[in-house]
């Protein structure tokens, strides 16, 4: 199979081009945007320089060529696809084409559960997906269902906890991956979250009472909404828009870019930054496959993932900001909360009970996560 050769420049350009229509703002915004792009470019250049240095240190030409198979089931142009293809491109560059990833995006090899099952059995090697689908294979990943656990922290702090070499949480979560037959390569996020869109103004905890909100069919997510007084309603994705339009439901929850893709600004009045679940993509590899790789290839793969995360994090923040702007330009009113709101929600008995339940399910990993974030 032939590797999909996608350069980091082309990937970045495609993402920025896709967001160009969401632009706008005054000179201050333009200055901030220019500064962010300059910083991102500098980080990318530094990462490429490190890759070149690493390539110079290892003589990959003396190793047998190895091709891995990677896949995702995200929508076209979604962060998961761009992340996976960027890792493939970087691995190719770092090793001079000796280690390659034949990457299949957008569900070419199946849905998330199918891909993870194939990865676990060794039929494919690498999978990129959001955290929720992994719970059926790695029960400890339910730690990401802890509501609002990340809401008060920035992307740098969360990245250190999820990916840091000295992070106790990362160590314990990685061990859970190994037990299930996977090897954790990294988690991509930048403190962007699932939000709530609604036709009812939800500024306070009391405003959520009896709010008919569409959720995923996830017991922990539904328990959270019930605990704050809402009425969670699982519903097929294809039915959500029309149900919001005709008033069958009042609200739904998703990442901002998903809301834009579904044109929810046409049928929803408010965009509330409830920040209840972190929007994150994990990348993993079959454990036996990783261990079979030459240590130089293992290092190259780890390096490619680390560089891709560093390069994409500013883009995730841009996508989130531009998506929120598209929704508000389309007529939605943005509602933001201070830390006191999150503290009030987290102090509810029902939410505290849910925390205890999830912490038990993940063998205390929830406590480790909270302690790591609070350091």
From TrEMBL:
GO terms of biological process kind: transmembrane transport
Signal peptide (residue range): 1-20
Gene3D superfamilies: Bacterial extracellular solute-binding protein, family 7
Top-level division of the source organism's lineage: Bacteria
UniProt keyword Signal, yes or no: yes
InterPro entries from the UniProt entry: DctP_fam, TRAP_DctP_sf
Keywords: Receptor, Signal
Alphabetical list of Pfam families matching this protein: DctP
Name of the protein in question: Tripartite ATP-independent transporter solute receptor, DctP family
Organism listed in the record: [Clostridium] aminophilum
